[in-house]
Design brief:
The chain has 13 helices and 23 strands. Helix 4 runs parallel beside helix 6. By secondary structure, the protein is α+β, with helices and mostly antiparallel strands. Bound molecules: ligand EPZ. Ligand EPZ binds next to helix 1, helix 5, helix 6 and helix 12.
């Protein structure tokens, strides 16, 4: 099995460029299905989930090829409207292809998306929204048979501001007749990026970033070039790495506006965070302080995706920090692994109480999920001795090259690949 070997105790110094955003590019790749013409995605991250999306696109008949960090996709000709069960299971966000296939083909056939290590992740809001736009969807033994010869725009009020449901309905709305209004829409920066991409290709979408997104459907979309936004969770990970190990890092291209909930906490803990158009700088000297309670919430609240990496940064803080995870039922699986490294964390339901310890020590640990895996690396940077982080397939879903980036920041980190 591949593993990362990290020797902690060395402050980070240096600069890294932040990769393109996973959670932005996945719905954008689904959106390419709406476009007749070539799309060129700049700063497209090379990740397991992106490769899975490419396999889905190719299975539908699209052309997709890499040119460096640019991904070219051409969906001018589609040969299929179904996604196989094995492709659907590869990643949870495969469900966002549903709205796009329906908009383009008027029908779709796929299975329920893959199970998830974060706990139950229903898609009821996706399906209810698509039905409201006129899709007939039959769920049959885990298979979704969808027919929508005429999608019609209307207002859809989401019971909760789901990121994926907002994206799915934006894509379906592009293929609907008339205006689709999504109320209580998710406001994440990735929703704004999807809107910008669609509009760059000729769509008429407004309101992303607010609770109401309006899509004027029926526009013919054309190809174009689009730069994917920088990944705010990767940036949050490296900020937390600097807080954990100490030192001074510069994250080129990171956008401070997307990260204010995270940087506010780091500043409260004693880090100096500054930013300009080029990126974000974080300086951390000495032991950091515990933070006021962290409650995860939809954007602009504290991101659930940064909960684990922040927790890892606070393991040696002076004092106690309380975390409340409000998005997912099972997002503390990293805790057991962090405890192996000497962390003092008590979990009760959705609350985790982290009491800073003097020392962490290296251990053999396993990634339990994507961000939890990154958190183990953040903690390892501050631990005495060597930490072996295994089960890297989770990290590879969302980080282009964690070893390269932390190595560029001066960490002692080596990746051992599994023997074939
Ligand atoms: C997106 O997942 C992200 N994934 C997740 O990132 C992120 O943790 C999450 O948003 C929250 O910010 C991608 O963008 C690919 P949701 P998504 O629908 O869209 C409930 C990472 O580490 N809900 O906003 O699946 C749901 O159970 C990942 O990069 C329903 O009840 O999240 C959850 O409690 C993991 N019914 C809440 O809404 C639905 O139909 C928010 O989920 C849909 C969601």
């Amino acid at each position: 099995m591949s593993q990362l070997l990290i020797r902690g105790g060395r402050p980070l110094e240096g600069e890294v460029s932040i990769q393109g955003s996973k959670n932005s590019v996945l719905p954008i790749l689904a959106a390419t299905l709406l476009i007749r013409g070539q799309v060129e995605l700049e700063r497209c991250p090379r990740l397991r989930d992106v490769e899975a999306s490419i396999r889905i696109l190719r299975s539908l008949g699209c052309e997709a090829r890499w040119e460096g960090d640019r991904l070219m996709v051409d969906a001018s000709v589609l040969g299929d409207w179904s996604i196989s069960d094995s492709l659907m299971r590869e990643m949870r966000s495969s469900v966002v292809f549903l709205g796009a296939i329906l908009a383009r083909c008027g029908k779709a056939l796929c299975s329920m998306p893959g199970g998830c290590e974060l706990g139950p992740r229903p898609i009821d809001l996706h399906l209810a929204g698509l039905r409201a736009l006129g899709a007939e969807i039959v769920e049959d033994g885990g298979v979704l048979r969808c027919e929508a010869p005429h999608l019609r725009g209307r207002e859809i009020v989401l019971a909760t501001p789901s990121v994926g449901a907002t994206e799915n309905l934006m894509l379906a709305g592009c293929g609907a007749e008339g205006e689709t209004v999504i109320s209580n829409a998710a406001r994440e920066p990735e929703i704004v990026d999807l809107q910008e991409f669609l509009n760059a290709c000729g769509a008429e979408v407004r309101g992303a970033g607010t609770g109401t997104v309006r899509i004027a459907g029926g526009k013919a979309l054309h190809g174009g070039t689009y730069p994917v936004m920088p990944d705010r969770i990767v940036a949050a990970t490296y900020l937390c790495a600097a807080a954990s190990a100490g030192g001074e890092v510069f994250l080129r291209d990171a956008r401070s506006a997307d990260l204010s909930a995270v940087t506010a906490v780091l500043e409260e803990c004693g880090c100096a965070v500054t930013s300009d158009n080029a990126g974000i700088r974080c300086v951390s000297r000495g032991r950091i302080r515990a933070a006021s309670p962290i409650r995860t919430a939809p954007y602009p609240g504290f991101p659930t995706d940064a909960q684990a990496v922040l927790m890892a940064a606070l393991l040696r803080a002076n004092g106690t920090t309380i975390f409340e995870e409000n998005l997912f039922e099972n997002r503390y699986r990293h805790v057991e692994e962090l405890v192996r490294m000497g962390a003092d964390i008590r979990v009760s339901g959705r609350v985790a109480v982290v009491t800073g310890v003097e020392r962490l020590h290296g251990a053999a640990v396993e990634c339990t999920d994507l961000r939890g895996g990154a958190a183990l690396c953040v903690a390892a940077l501050a631990a005495e001795g060597e930490t072996r982080v295994g089960n890297l397939r989770h990290i590879d879903r969302g980080y282009e090259d964690l070893r390269r980036d932390l190595g560029n920041l001066g960490a002692e980190i080596v990746r051992e690949e599994a023997r074939a």
